Amino acid sequence: MKRAVYPGSFDPVTFGHLDVIRRASEMFDVLVVSVLNNKVKSPLFSVEERVKILKEATKEIPNVQVDSFSGLLINYAAEHNMHVAVRGLRAITDFEYELQIAQTNRKLSKGALDTVFLTTSLEYAYLSSSSVKEIASFGGDISECVPEFVAKLMKEKYRASVL
To answer: Which residue among 2, 41, 152, 155 is the active-site one?
Structure first.
């Protein structure tokens, strides 16, 4: 059984993330979408909220599982018997950053973790979670960036932070 992990912050999950998830789910028997608990970032949504959101957003894809982790990806992958990480690329700047991480993961895992890069579909190449959060924070329309239920949750979060 071929299993892969798609790690990320997913704060929030965007249509670009979901595009990569759908496409990667066709390549592997099981795709584990795992939310990184990154202590360096100040996320809009908690890890638990992001896991719940991803479960809802991927419920129609039967071979997708959603999880979370802290620490090094190589340790998480080894613990769950996964040897492939999936990463999405929007632009050449993403590639430079992701290539360095992929090479580091391969080296630290002693060759046990490879990375598969999927280029983002052109219709989502402009999307980033950071830009979606910025647009939403100013009350902008994010309906073309995230699923409707995610947009609603974001509006509630930003409304609560202003009160």
So the answer is: 41
